[in-house]
Amino acid sequence: MPTVNEKDGFSLLEMVVVLMIVMIMTAAVLPMYQGSLTWMRRDRVTRDLVARMKYAQERAIADVTEYRFYLDHDRGSYWLMRQAGEKDGKDVFEEVNDAGATRDRLPESLEFEKPKASLDKERKAHYIAFYPGGACDYATIKLKYDKTEEIKITTKGRLGQLDVEKD
Question: What is the pTM of this model?
Answer without folding.
Answer: 0.75
